[in-house]
Amino acid sequence: LFVAAVCCVVAVTAQAADTPEPAPAAEPPAANPLVVARAQIKAKQWDKAVAELQRVGLQADADWNNLMGFAMRKKAAPDLAGAERHYDAALRIKPYHRGALEYSGELYLMKGDLPRAEQRLAALQKACPSGCEELADLKEDRAERPDRPLPLAGAGCPSPSRCRRRRTSGP
């Protein structure tokens, strides 16, 4: 009986040695560090989005700069100079960043700088030769304001639809 038990243990041990180790659990994909800021922007929580982006601190990332510019431009007290710096940084990193081209074009329309808005529109046309949402949005915004700047919401804005983006999803 003892010999039979030893044989069984040896057989099980030999079988276990032939069984491959289970593969280690796959690492979950790294979370996008901008996901929280994007959610705050979608919820129109501009100050929270700016704070979150500052916390994340990805200044060398075109998307980070585009989001920062967008949130700074949309705040109750917009920082247009800061927004412009971030859009320009995004475009230095990625010259045909469609979001930065669109949103900086909108910024220039707000400021009444029509030549620069037209430059952004031309760059978007190169970036999207077959068309894209960013190009269509900037064309629409430009057509609505052929010769005047876009008023800031709450600062002489004739109607919210003329002072805010139509696309609600944000960048």
What does this protein structure show overall?
With 171 residues, the chain is an all-alpha fold. It contains nine helices and no strands. It has helices at 2-18, 35-42, 46-56, 62-74, 80-93, 98-111, 114-127, 133-144, 160-163. Helix 3 runs antiparallel to helix 4 (62-74) and helix 6 runs parallel beside helix 8 (133-144). The chain starts with a helix and ends in an 8-residue tail after the last helix. Mean pLDDT is 79; it is low at 5-14 and 150-169.
How would the blueprint of this fold be written?
Blueprint: H1 2-18, H2 35-42, H3 46-56, H4 62-74, H5 80-93, H6 98-111, H7 114-127, H8 133-144, H9 160-163
Helix pairs in contact: 2-3, 3-4, 4-5, 4-6, 5-6, 6-7, 6-8, 7-8
